[in-house]
Amino acid sequence: MSDPRPGTERSYQIDDEFSRAVFARRTGEVCAFLAPHLRAGMRLIDCGCGPGSITVDLAQEIAPGAAIGIDLREHALTHGRELAQGRGIANVAFRAASIYQLPYADASFDAAFACAVLQHLAAPLAALKEIRRVLKPGGVIGIVDGSATLSFRYPTNSLLDAWDRLRGLVRAYNTGRPSDVLELRTLLRKAGFARTQASGYMNTEAGPPAGSLEATRTVAHNHLLRLRGGLGELAIAQGWTTKEELEQMAEALAAWGEAPDAFYARPCFTAIAWV
Questions:
Q1: What CA–CA distance (Å, rounded) separates 58 from 45?
Q2: At residue 1, does pLDDT exceed 50?
Q3: Per-residue pLDDT tens for 5-24?
Q4: 78-102 tens-digit pLDDT
């Protein structure tokens, strides 16, 4: 896999309201696949932690060890710090840093985690090499990645299909590479990890597949936040669609969310590897 240069991503813009509705609701359940490989007293780094809700849960999992969440965006870390303080969890810290240049010495951590990060990077292989650098011999990494822009939506129509395609266009625009499914085991092997395993499941951006009226309404609401936020603005600026077409997509999304037989899911992939 040929990567663009590290750090050449266009700015990854996620609207604050979407972040609160989706990212801040993610919990340690996301990394249940990694839990059997964690133990008390470990030192763990969560790369691209965003609002830190998963990081705080991981800190509890490895207490009295330490969890450190890093994210490129300093403002994104405020929620994690407030969450940790509110729950009285003292073995977690947050720091603004690039996944390509982690501010830690070689072999500093026993474990690493990255959720929905690699899919947004121009050079995921370079990021994995950097994560491996800070892991101790025998250290473990867990990855959750929804890199496939494929989604399963029922019922659908041309407007909903157009909306789903827009999200793929934005991914490719931001990373400078095709929005293909990431070859996680291949990337991990090329990064120097000795042993790997992978799996997958279906979910939505904020939880399990949506097959109830309440769940499809939530999916529609979350997608409308992006359509009427930075994603929609970028799509218009790049000439991928028009304001009028976006409004038609918005109406179609709202109607779909109320459909009695609606369903939505997208593939998500997990991988574990050892140094």
A1: 10
A2: no
A3: 665 666 555 656 555 545 44
A4: 888 998 999 999 999 999 999 999 9
| Angle (deg, nearest 10), helices 213-227 and 243-257 | 170
Q: What is the pTM of this model?
A: 0.86
Higher pLDDT among residues 175 and 37, named by residue: 37
| CA separation for the pair 243, 262 (Å, rounded) | 26
pLDDT in tens, 116-128: 889 888 889 999 9
How deeply is 5 buried, as exposed, middle or buried, from its count of CB atoms within 10 A (0-12, 13-18, 19+)? exposed
